[in-house]
Amino acid sequence: MDRQRIALLRREMRNRGVDAFIVSSVHNIRYLTGFSGSHGLCIVRSKNAVFLTDPRYKLQSKSEVRGCTRFITTTDLFEEAARRKVLSRCRRVAFESLHLTYAQYRQLRKLFSAVSFEPTSDVVENFTVVKNAEEVARITEAVEISDRVFADVVNKIRPGMKELDVAAEISYLHRRYGAEQDSFETIVASGPRGALPHARATSKRIRNGEFVILDFGCTKQGYSSDLTRTIAVGSVPQRGRRIYNSVLNAQQAAIESVRAGMRTKDLDAVARQRLASDGYGKYFVHSLGHGLGLQIHEKPRISRLSKEHLVEGSVVTIEPGVYIPEFGGVRIEDDVLVTETGCRVLSSAPKNLMIL
Ligand code: ZN
Ligand code: ZN
User: Burial code of 221-259, b = ≥16 C-beta within 10 A, e = fewer?
Assistant: First the structure.
């Protein structure tokens, strides 16, 4: 599998007329080579590929890295690449402009003064949009774990409990059920704090009559889940019910509209128009969703500003929300696999308004 991915990169290199490609993003290195550590460098040439890392990862890289010659070094990875003449006879070399620092760029220019460096963006990222069966299986496993965690955690939430205690419970259960880690910092936002779409959990206590947004996910063999449910504690005012139903309807309408080939901005518009017709348009302050895979946020973006199209085989989130200052917020998020005729919803945590 990883050899095929490197072959894909070589094809792209030929199209761009470059002799080598420097991959410095750890996520892209993982995608291409299988290496799951946090420090490495991959340089792909037309006939060979090298992978460099430090001695901490000697054993791990031996078991994980495929399709590359490995070099373990205690010196700087770019200096080691120069010492081993990895770019000898290369005239044009591509690098990832979004993942290389200015200092590293200057270092490359100095170490390889005869080379012309070509900035690129989103080359490997574009390969990751379509998931293969194995990737879908890993994401599905991660989603199933998060579904199970939700079912458990709603039985533990009580008035008086701190948001941080709920977040700790979610992290603990993720690991208990076989995940490696949370895929991002768990969001637990109760009452007025729900108006902050990306509120971290705090020591605030959950009170009767509040909505609580739970946005969480885990990784399974590196692949992420991303799930949001909003639950109520004690009671819900009429206004809260209206908002909840509006978000749920917008989310379902969007899920039903998913089709391979459609523009992602048109999908975003389905949810946005629903919320606007209920009077909540201006309170939906973020985009509808994002791709999901080795990273929690991948391509495509499902946003008003995106020029991308939905592709069969990609996994995306559908997550409309309404955020009203001082009142709070509601967000509902599922993960779906885009199919030729629609989508398969991977998450199955219940979406009827739960009042604990
Ligand atoms: Zn989320
Ligand atoms: Zn998300």
Answer: ebbbbbbbbbbbbeebeeebeebbebbbbbbbbbbebbb
Ligand approaching nearest to the C-alpha of 184: 1
Contacts of 264 (CB under 8 A, 6+ apart): 288, 300, 301, 302, 303, 306, 308, 309, 310
Residues within 5 Å of ion ligand 2, judged at the Cβ atom: 226, 317
Pick from 258, 271, 269: nearest CA to 342: 258
Neighbouring CB atoms inside 10 A of 331's CB total: 24
The rounded radius of gyration (Å) of the Cα atoms in the chain is 23
pTM across the whole model: 0.93
Token pair, residue 164, equals 């941080």
- The region that residue 271 occupies, defined by phi over 0 for left and psi between -120 and 50 for alpha, beta otherwise, is alpha
Residue 129 CA, ligand 1 centroid: distance in Å: 18
Tell me the C-alpha to C-alpha distance, in Å, between residue 219 and each of 42, 170, 331, 343. Answer: 24, 13, 21, 22
Distance of CA 113 to the CA centre of its chain: 37
Q: Distance, CA 227 to ligand 1 centroid (Å)? A: 5
Q: How far apart are CA 20 and CA 65, in angstroms?
A: 19
pLDDT in tens, 188-247: 999 999 999 888 999 999 999 999 999 999 999 999 999 999 999 999 989 999 999 999
Gap from CA of 155 to ligand 2 centroid (Å): 24
Place of tokens 């990862």: 57
- How many Cα atoms within 13 Å fall on the side-chain side of residue 32? 28
